[in-house]
Amino acid sequence: MYNKSASFAAKISCEKELRNLGARMPEQTVGFIGIGVMGLPMATNMAKAGISLIIWNRTADKLQTLASVGVTVADSAADVFSKAETIVLMLADDRAID
Description:
single chain; alpha/beta; globular
């Protein structure tokens, strides 16, 4: 038999535990390469959420919006890879990889 109140209590307990786990997670730097049509709003939302970002883009002028709100701008893509534990690639096409 399904016990709705027991399921609800279990769900609340699980959500509280997940929040507690999140509070204990160490901060890590996330790299973001590709600040274009999709990358800019994604990286902006990550920065607004308090995620520590290091970013790079082939066209440097696209980095200014994020740099103005305190996001770290890398000198190169290699710099992003050396300083971030997780990296998001938001590239236009496979030619952008080179």
